[in-house]
Amino acid sequence: MLRIIIVISALLTLLSGCATTPTTTLDTSPNFKPAQAAQAHPLEMYLHSGRLLRSGDMDEAAFWFYAGQLRYRVHLMARPNLPPDQDLALFSSLNSTLGQEVNEYIGGNPSEWEQVIENVLSWDDQTPNDFTPKDKFPSAHREVRAGLLELKEMIHKNHQEIREDRASAGLENR
């Protein structure tokens, strides 16, 4: 958990070079509210997930992690020429740190994991994406959503194997 806090603090220091749109700097808000998600840079959802994780709200943290990941992947796919040392590097760092803790938790119950993904896909369907508009980048949206749906199907087909792998790695099954 301390590693997450250190990484998020360091990332906030580095954010001046990241884009909220392809041309402006990122100004993250510690007061991000889910109602702001339609307009927010996907990083805001990751940071919100980290705050929820630190407060112990693991299920909500998992939801916002996957919502942020979906929206961030769409952003990166829609804008392949972004500098690799900014949004792409930040995305990778967040997935390797925050993602590890969220996935260690949510993977403990494959049925819940599937439900989180289903909820994120439903939320994304119903929530506008002003940051990377669905009508302007339809193929990026379709492709990223299809990838998340594939993950959900893989989890569904492999509940027992997931549980066995976790047990052999010393991870909790809930």
TrEMBL record:
Q: Which UniProt keywords apply?
A: Signal
The signal peptide here is 1-19
What name appears for this protein in its UniProt entry? Uncharacterized protein
Organism lineage reads as: Bacteria, Pseudomonadati, Pseudomonadota, Gammaproteobacteria, Pseudomonadales
